[in-house]
Amino acid sequence: MKRENENVESEETLDPDDWESMRKLGHKMLDDMLDYMQTVRERPVWQPVPNQIKAHFSRPAPQQPQPPEEIYEEFVEKVLPYPMGNIHPRFWGWILGTGTVMGAFAELLAASMNTNTGGGDNHIANHVEKQVIDWIKEILRYPQSASGVLTSGCSAANIIGLTVARNAKAGFDLRRKGLQSAPRKMVLYASQEVHSSIQKAVELLGLGSEALRRLPVNDYFQIDLEALKATITKDREDGYQPFCVVGAAGTTNTGGIDDLGALADLCQQENLWLHVDGAFGAWAALAPRARNKVAGMERADSLALDLHKWMYMPYEIGCILVRHEEQHRKAFAVMPEYLVHGEGGRGLSGGDLPWFSDYGFQLSRGFRALKAWMSLKEHGSCKYARIIQQNIDQAFYLGELVNASPELELSAPVTLNVVCFRYVAPDMDGDALDEVNKRIVIELQEQGVAVLSGTIIKGKYVLRAANSNHRSRRGDFDVLVREVIRMGKELTADN
């Protein structure tokens, strides 16, 4: 009996030894992070991580406990000062979201509940996710009968959407027999501006990157419809099996939007699946003066999108919607004995909702839906619509500033929230100007002024500002243009 008591006394937990001191530390963390977000404009957009800080993160794993207060102080000193910078008002690099206070709170709440939303209908998290997906369908005018699942982001959403497309159009039981049983090589189509996640998805699905036909674009960086039709016809004549067209609702490079209505018509005529990559651009459907640009998106067989980009929610949260629920479920559902569910509503595994693990490749899934649910309730779709339109208007304002500056030139039409431009000097050749513009991107970042990214358009290196930032103001773009011109003049004078 004594030995049994000794064993009980030696049992341990990972809960705090002192709940009150942990509570005090938690309140300090909360206050510090609110101050951090409130004062973000007062700091540089980004600063490089010093070598001594990098070296700190090469130390071996700790073997003994450390006081929580010391761990937090280490975070404040060595982690917090060196972010990517995307919560700053002058961060326009790539296309990254900015996050919100309520979104950060929701992450704490979701982590505290520590729910696995892969299955088990009789717990509330899956009902929250279903409601969020229903709201997304409603906001984007997508059929309410469609299925959907929240993902880590649009890369995962594209993989899921193209998996369903491949399986649905294969013409045989691809899940059981595999691609090696396909009578013809399956091919799909997208513009040359398509996001790299589409190529990754095609490769992961075993189709091979050669199966992705990259087609030329017009002056507005939309897929060339005549080239698309001709390529489909030729592929069929050559013995290939076309199965899908990928339309872009906002390309990463330029913000270009394919003619989605025309693509939907073509896919209907040719019996092809239409998948739309709407990572950020899908949300233009909310903006009063831009929603016509994504008209036809609601006709897609599958629609991939992010909420951590142009819906400003904390990373990571994306979504895939599929018009045909049965085809979606058939592409992923597996039911081993230990996961049998749907027992007449009884127990944790019962209930009237399908398991979300039946609609994607994840069984273990976090409670992503909570930050979307709380954010949408806090702000409402009308406010999101106004801020998305505000971002578009700011992009056009930046385009006007560029056009009004002799030292700058637009490199692509401004169609949404992406502005591509470059510094120009009449006495410099193209290669030299490319180097100047590359250096401007670096100087903007290293001086903490702004974060832009760079890209290549028509063989020229250009600056790229992608505005999915709810904290940006027009004055920030005035600063950007002034600093780009200043840096450009200094760099060309040095040369």
| Major beta sheet, strand line-up | 1-7-6-5-4-2-3
What is the CATH first-level class name of the largest domain?
A: Alpha Beta
Molecular shape:
globular
Q: Which series of helices and strands comes N to C?
A: HHHHHHEHHEHEHEHEEEHHEEHEEH
Please give a structural write-up:
This protein is α/β, with parallel strands linked by helices and 495 residues long. The chain is built from 15 helices and 11 strands. It has 2 domains: 18-46 and 83-99 and 381-495, Aspartate Aminotransferase, domain 1; 115-366, 3-Layer(aba) Sandwich (Aspartate Aminotransferase, domain 2). It has helices at 2-10, 19-38, 51-56, 68-78, 101-113, 124-139, 154-169, 174-177, 196-204, 225-237, 260-270, 325-332, 369-403, 430-446, 474-494; strands spanning 147-151, 186-191, 212-215, 241-248, 273-277, 302-306, 318-322, 408-410, 418-423, 453-457, 460-466. The mean pLDDT is 94.
